[in-house]
Amino acid sequence: MRLSVLLFVLLCPAILTYGQKSISGRITHEGSALKNVSIQNLASRVSTASDQKGMYQISARPKEELQFTYMGMDTVSIIVEDVTNILNINMQMQVEALDEVEVVSEVGKNKQRIMEQQYPTNENLIRTAFGIIDKETFAGRLPILTSKDMISNHYHFGMFLMGKFAGLNVVINPDYTFDVYSRSMGSIMAKKPAIYDIDGQIFTEGPSWLDPSTVERVALMPGIMATSRYGSIGAGGVVVVNTKNGTYKPKEKENYDQALLRNNYVKGSVVSIDGKEAPTSTYGEKLWNSGSLQEAKLTYEQHGNAFKSHPYFLLEAYRYFYEERNAKDYADGILNDFMNMSQDNPVYLKAMAYVLDAQGRAETAHDLYKRIYTLRPDYAQSFIDMANSYRDLNRPESAVSLYARHSYLLDEGMLPKDSLDLADIMKREMNNLFTLESSSLKIKQRKSNPDEAYATRLVFEWNDSEAEFDLQFVNPNNQFFNWRHTMEEMPERIRSEKEQGYSMADFILDDELPGIWKVNATYHGNKQVTPTFVKAIIYRNYGSKLQSKETKVFQLGTRDVNQQLFTLNISTRVVHN
Asked: What percent of the chain has pLDDT over 90?
């Protein structure tokens, strides 16, 4: 009977009721206020404008979209969430591309030459009519299939493409010609069919004449990214095809480290925060400068009346007493105050849950994840966090039930389908669960995917979906790879995160370059004046019975400063999927 009740709860569709709320903030450009910026709620069509100080106020419900427009500035679109109250917007000058003008620097030429040499061994490269593109530095999602992914009995290229890319719709016509429509942004399908870049030649009709067995690599470039290269004809997206006969292969094949190829060297100072950012508040500094536990308690009580209404004050004080002073009973009293104040705010709850995870307090963290799941039953992140929390409590069957519920809601159309990265992340989470917990779940171990048998996996989560930051992975030669989570660099992914409800990214490490790797972060803010908490999970021997897990938490508040989060002693290079 208990099992039946559990299944009923898991399979019941979530009923969500969102109320209208007031959103306010300040709009600036390079620190100066912008007046007369148009702000429109695209759902209700209600609009307003910023005043002389750049201030504005508008009503919206969660999941509705606010659009900020100003002559000469890039348009900014923000999806409102359940906790959104303040949105401070920094607008950027609009840069117009010049038609029929191309400037190629020597640096660009050298980079293309290097990628020419690297192409045979680097599966992240795709050849286009405008040169070779690296998916790791491409401004957006660029899925690439290689020949090993393209085993197929189809002789028709359109049929071969079916099911190969998320968000790709292939229409086979009666005369066996075909058209392809790709997802251009979010859940909106492109109205125009895709075009085809085959070995540098542009085709506007589906190449039904192309034999799939001759294909070396295929990539899907979304329309929003393709238009900058292909103009209006690329509005429906571009299917890029490199054939085996049409692709140039250099005589010498050498392996290159990815950071080396881009000739990126870390310059300037990097601030080490050694596991936590130095306190930036007055009360934080006084706590850290306390000579004794009694003095620290007195400091906390003195500031309590003024700051106890601020959740991050309570969180910082809790961490200090629990981690630095080992005053766990006293810290738990602060934790109770935090819970009473933050029980309806998933952003605050998630920050504390991260801290509890890092402290090894799985039971207490689980209570917070359950509360977040209740508040956000339509967020993919809620399912992932709860499932991982159940695994920490050695309850893998409950983790499986959560993934089953998520799949059910997707199939029933109660949650938005597909995303740029989420599907791959959830696939890795589920494969790992079934691989390591097969005996507990009393199922046959699934056949492992050799492409996922990596030594190390890094997973980053952040509590505030508005957070913008750079992650930097520095190899032992002081060369780096950057992953820029900003509206400027990856607007399509951030939109997908809002629609799907997730705030995480994972990076797989394979063995190439031995030595000490550094992981740095540059924080750019979260449209408020609050810090952002980032949780980093380090999985070693990922996917094997020797898999281990280490959790670190970082409070990011200082903006535009490159900070070293932690180091890894591994023999790997960074690959982002």
From this structure: 40
